[in-house]
Amino acid sequence: TGEVQARARTFEANQLASAYFIQQLSQPEAKKGRETLISRGFDAESMASFGVGYAPKGWSNLTEHLKSKGFTEEELVVAGLVSRGERGVYDRFRGRLVWPIRDANNQVLGFGARHLYEDDQGPKYLNTSETPVYHKSRVLYGLDLAKKAIAKKRQVVVVEGYTDVMACHLAGVDTAVATCGTAFGEEHIKVLNRLLIGSGDAPAEVIFTFDPDAAGTKAA
After folding, report:
1. Confidence at residue 216, expressed as pLDDT on a 0 to 100 scale
2. Residue ranges of the chain with per-residue pLDDT less than 50
3. Would you state the pLDDT for residue 214?
4. What does the H/E/C string look like for 162-215?
5. N or C, which end of the chain is more exposed by having fewer CB within 10 Å?
């Protein structure tokens, strides 16, 4: 059916986009992105294990790359990688550090992108819009890396951002995940329950560590 096809093509486009962003992180233009990560204590190895990438500043770099791989503009709009404006389509993520958001089966559902440049008028964090595979109320960043530890330790640590998840994992807190631009809710609990259900009956512990500001306190 059309829906199954749309999901398959979206997964495929996301996978290729993720590889493209990773490749771009090593390019000269991404220097500020690399420096930002290094200044926070993340080396090349940790950048690679989290699949961190860079979206170039141009309007249609990713669009052209994926069109060369056989994707149509319409498919890329459906996948949330490309936005449609008055003058045609343009890349949704431009001049940003990009994190792939994967499900428990390691499929790329979408992306979270953090702004780097002063002249970027967009929000600090920009996520994929709702697509056939990305539903913000149930995606958790870091789930692909934390799933085994969550089931084994029966613990989930919920933090606020992508770099917080990275920092936790590097510090040995391998049960850390983050919500993606939305509150932690019922759908997230269902996702985690599925991971915990097969690993015994002991009660599970969920720890919220949000930023120590007013918004973080309110979220907690």
Report:
1. 67
2. none
3. 73
4. HHHHHHHHHCCCCCEEEECCCCCCHHHHHHHHHHHHCCCCCCCEEEECCCCCHH
5. N
